[in-house]
Amino acid sequence: MRVTINGTARELPAGTTVAQAVRALTPAATGVAVALNDEVVRRSAWDSTTLGEDDRVEVLTAVQGG
Q1: Is residue 7 left, alpha or beta, with left meaning phi > 0 and alpha meaning psi from -120 to 50?
Q2: Type and span of the H or E element at 41
Q3: Could you report the per-residue pLDDT of 7-55, keeping only the tens digit for each?
Q4: Is the C or the N end of the chain the one with fewer CB within 10 Å?
């Protein structure tokens, strides 16, 4: 299935979860937020939220610095 992650089209297997998509993008375990089709997905729902054809996912990671 085709989804857009952070503005880039990607082919992912059907049934891919938000958690799997996040792990494919970043090894960070904390400081990560996800929006699916412009709606924030709570971390507790990442494992149970599956992506669908043409979904738009934004994965944001916190950056420390000054």
Answers
A1: left
A2: strand 39-41
A3: 999 999 999 999 999 999 999 889 999 999 999 999 999 999 999 999 9
A4: C
CA angle 38, 41, 44 (to 5 degrees): 180
What is the rounded CA–CA span in Å between residue 40 and residue 17?
14
Domains in the chain, start-ordered, CATH in brackets?
2-61 (3.10.20.30)
Residues 6+ apart with CB under 8 A from 36: 18, 49, 51, 55, 56, 57
Determine whether 19 is exposed, middle or buried from the number of CB atoms within 10 Å of its CB (0-12, 13-18, 19+): middle
DSSP structure class, residue 57: E
